[in-house]
Amino acid sequence: MNNTKHTSPSYVIVLLILAAEAVFILPFVLQRIFRPTFLETFDVNNEQLGYCFSVYGIVALFSYLFGGPIADKFHPKNLMAAALLLTAAGGVYLASYPTLGNLRILYGYWGFTTIFLFWAAMIKATRIWGGQNKQGIAFGFLDGGRGLVAAAFGSVGVLIFALFIDVDISETTLTERRYAFKQVILTCSGIVAFIAILVFFFLNRLKGNDSSNSNLKYFDWTAFAQLIKIPSIQLLMIIILCAYTGYKASDLFTLYATHVMKYDAITSAGVGTSLLYVRPIIGVVIGFLADRTRPSLWLVIGFVLTTVSSMFFTMNIIDDSTTLLFVINILLMAIGVYSCRVLYFATLEEAKIPIALTGTAVGLVSIVGYTPDIFSGPMFGILVDNIDKPVGLQNAFLVLALFSLVGLLAAYKFYRINRSSC
Fold this sequence. Notes:
With 422 residues, this protein is mainly α. 78% of the residues lie in helices and 0% in strands.
């Protein structure tokens, strides 16, 4: 059990928030906000883009395993700054509009930079910042703040895109749209590189626990064997898998706005960006409530909301004539998805995982938990690329409902087995 107090300064969590979202802007957030534009300018379909995500996920799978222990050995700032700079370099290459084959290689490269060097280091730094009694707030700030950063990137991207489109978008040529989107990519790459510099020079003060242990054996199978026997770790693998599938499905929001609600590309991107502004509110509120009850309780509630709202999208009752229902249901789904995402690592304290093994534990649960990086892209891509787009989207949300139901059962069991120890 971590007996540290929350003594690190506030600017540390601000840097963690900036870095934690910036590193994923280029691989994921731009495609989420500008999905129709990305598909058009790169001349790919949803299934082909999904296989790019699969390459990312395969590289990430091994990166989780070997990158987790490295976070227990080296200072987070060095790993995180290097990851951000290398990711930004990949963004510069993305702006050259590589072929589909090279795009897949780029996503594999990003799987290494964002996961092996970055992921476990960021989670461990956040846990140390939160101390013993503020895990919900720490991860609530982290994920909520990430939503705000993503929304800011999205707003900047939409603004730049619109700035280079000086007529109605339907009147522009593909060449003009490609040029405008290139400026979006390059701007985001520059901001990511700048955040890397900030992290390297200012992410120093992590009080209450040594953030690295240079004497620790790099890869210790004994630690993995010790952790895998813990029932909470086994359940957390399933919880993260289901919750992350829900988060990956948030890519469907702009497609639903385009194909069912009949919004144009800029308005659809605005829908995705608007939802990102809800994420900080959800993160802080849910984190606050979790610290006064238990994180696993709010995981259960989050999965309930995601299951119910997903089913509404499968019932063919939400279309361009029911705008209010669309807004309400997508908001409920966002609350459910973001609540689960906020809290699954906050449960490490509830499950009494030693802080010295945080990086290793994160790497272990992530091996299973983040496999949606491999299969969710092709899965949702194949479903959505149905000739009948609304039917394809309904099928995709039905799959999401099933994953959410499994996550609900796992979260409830986690809640039950840890209840007596809290």
